[in-house]
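User: Sequence in, structure out. Go.
Assistant: Echoing your sequence, followed by the structure tokens.
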Amino acid sequence: MLNIVKKCIRLIDGITEFIGKTAAWCSILMVVVTFYIVLTRYAFNSGSIAIQESIIYLNALLFLLTAAFTLKHDGHVRVDIFYGPASHRYKAWVNMLGGLFLLLPVAGFILWGSWDYVQAAWRIRETSPEAGGIPYVYLLKTLIVVMASLVILQGLAEIVRNFLFLFFKEEDPEEHIEPVGGVI
């Protein structure tokens, strides 16, 4: 049974890793597109609303699709002055309970709260209010649901990883289980 749980954790980690690393390329693309926008505006006195809006889409992709990746790599901001020097067991307890009582409820609320919003955008196939804008606002809004789902999945993996460490003396949760080879 533990092997199945570990395989599930590795699968979730692999999915998170793949999506996070793929979405991270949006930052380079954002720089290139921004350079292009500045170049065409000031050197050639022209521009495109769709290309300008693409920066919003790229930023949303970058931010929303790397949230679970940041969670997996413990890259979120911590304010707790007791956490840093604490033992691995203390950190595992904080991470497990924080995931159960803070992360999952907040991500679940975001998923639940955005569902009708995204559904309404899909129903009307919402487009940009700007003439010549990107006609896929409904896809942009779908990223909210995707982000919440990915964070919930990765949050569950982190909770189980810490639970295994605390109660089954499995490997340290700070040294993540490597993702499944074929997923990345």
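User: And one key feature?
Assistant: DSSP finds five helices and no strands in the chain.
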